[in-house]
Each structure stands twice: as structure tokens, then as C-alpha cells.
Amino acid sequence: MRLSAEEISFGYQAGKTVLENISFHIDSGEVVGLAGASGLGKSTLSKILAGYETPQQGRVLLDGKPIPARGFQPVQLVFQHPEKAVDPRWKMKKVLAESGQFPESELLEAMGIQPEWLERWPAELSGGELQRFCVLRALSEKTKFLIADEMTAMLDAITQAQIWHTVLNYVREHQMGLVVISHEQELLDKLCNRVVQLA
Ligand SMILES: Nc1ncnc2c1ncn2[C@@H]1O[C@H](COP(=O)(O)OP(=O)(O)OP(=O)(O)O)[C@@H](O)[C@H]1O
After folding, report:
1. Range of 114's domain?
2. Which CATH number does the domain housing residue 34 bear?
3. Considering only CA atoms, which residue is closest to atom 6 of ligand 1?
4. What global pTM score does this model have?
5. Which ligand 1 atom minimizes the distance to the CA of 13?
6. Predicted ipTM?
7. What is the pLDDT of residues 54-107, one digit of tens each?
8. Number of neighbouring beta carbons within 10 Å of residue 97
């Protein structure tokens, strides 16, 4: 399966182009890094790939076809700020069930989620604890591509390593594609088959 962005142009305001004629693709089973200086539009491209923003020109295709706007989104995005990605009025067990399936206990454990956290509200967890839920929620059986936009940037090294280890295992097992956006060259070198430089 191939996720492709073809000749994308996008601006948030008229006359101010953030992305101009950008093309990008990733195949199932690949881990692709997306790098580039701050403000070049990496997060914007990731939102377009995941269907959060619509480009003024160009298109996003999954195996050559547009991704349906309704139903489960096969391209899942996890970004840096988990507190902005969960409903504060939902307990964590409901947040996790949002993907339509509840993860198996082995996966919860591998992600370092303690069972008692399931009964808590988002505000009762640390950023790192909350991010583990956001990552896990994105790993549905129906997810074909995961886009990790500075996904572990605010976490300590041990937590980062634990999350990436679990995600990479899952991605390999399910033959998903993974896009990694990071300012850490070392992380990109370690995780990725290839790195695309946004210029
Ligand atoms: N919602 C928005 N409204 C208006 N402009 C925006 C919005 N979001 C981002 N921008 C602008 O679009 C440009 C690209 O931002 P984006 O976050 O995609 O870059 P980035 O490459 O991911 O940056 P960083 O590496 O700093 O995270 C920036 O100039 C930013 O100020």
C-alpha cells in the first residue's frame, strides 16, 4: 500500500504559501523521516496527510485513491501535545476505546500503561503518561500509516526508548508505514529507512 501526497500547495492565509508543489510518498513497511528547518511546513504536511487540512492544490492518495473523509482514518497522526488530543471529559479507558477496539493487555504493558490509569481523567496524568495513550489509540488494526510528529519530543530518554520500541514492533508486525518528524537527527538515523528533507 502506498500513501502519496502529490504536488501539494498549501497556505493558511491567502497569499502566504507554506507548502509549494510538494510531493511525498511512503509504502507499507517503510519508516520514513521528514526533516527540515523550523517553520518549513513539516507539521502542516503531516496534517494534510492525515486529513486534518485540505490542500489548495494537489491531493493525498492511498493506493491511488482519495481517502474517504468519513469512517476510520487509515492515516493516524500523533503530535507533540497529548493534552490537545484528548477530550478532558473522558476517562482514559474511553479515550483508548475511541479507535473502536480496546488494546490487548500485553500492548498496554509494553507501552508502560498502568492498569489504574484507565480509571483516571486526562488531567490526572503527566504529559508522558498521556502520550502513551495517544500513541496506543492511534495503533488500531485499521491504521495503515502512522505519522509521528515530534511524538516523543517532550519525554525523557527512557520513556522515548520504550515508546519507540513498542511502536516499531507494532508497525513491523502489522506491516504499517511510519513517518517520523523530528529535529533529532540521531533519532531519525536510528529509526528510518530513508529521510526526506523538506527544503
Ligand atoms: N494554524 C495556523 N495558522 C496560520 N499559520 C500557521 C498555522 N500553523 C502553522 N502556521 C505557519 O505555517 C508555517 C509552517 O508551520 P509548521 O508547523 O508546519 O512548520 P514545521 O516545519 O512543522 O515547524 P517546527 O519544526 O517548528 O515544528 C509556519 O510559518 C507557521 O507559522
Report:
1. 30-54+70-197
2. 3.40.50.300
3. 12
4. 0.94
5. 4
6. 0.96
7. 999 999 999 999 998 888 899 999 999 998 999 999 999 999 998 778 888 999
8. 15
